[in-house]
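Re: How this chain folds, sequence and tokenised backbone to follow
How to read it: Take the token row as a discrete description of the fold.
Start of record: The labelled sequence and token lines come straight after this line.
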Amino acid sequence: MVKKISIYIDGANFVYGLKSLHPRYSDYHFDFESYIKMIVGKDELVSIFYYNASLKQEVNPRRFKEQQKLLARLRKIPQCKIILCKRQKRFGKDEEEYYTIKGDDIHLALDMLNHAWEDRYDKAILFSGDGDFAQLAKYVEDKKKEVEMVSFDELASRNLINEVDKCIFINKKTANRFFYRR
């Protein structure tokens, strides 16, 4: 039986996952479209949701430009919707400035849960290893939906692993195979 699949990508978590494989790896060079086609297989891809925050051009023009290229590639995928949240400036030790993303996890959780209630998919594939999503997986499965996670071994929360139906781990070999090449 063909299943309807929806994909939910925690963009910030994915970046950290790639960096856990190699410090020079970046989501800017990951071919999400080809990778998603491979994991969906013969099932029906209904939608892809990508959650992140736009980088600030004035902070790092090169990284901003690379991120814009990634977002442009994602926008070309017909089923893909990009949800950009806010970046909030914070200060660490020694008044060191850094930015955090605000709102991405709650947007992802609400979308995935609402779509389960609206019966938009049979299986949700969550690109994140964040343990905060363990309860979400449990609620979605209570609606008789399957939940799979795609993550990186070092970032995968045991709590989330215990709640999902299936785990797919991206390693260096997989990452290299799906780096975007023009």
In short: The first strand starts at residue 4 and ends at 10.
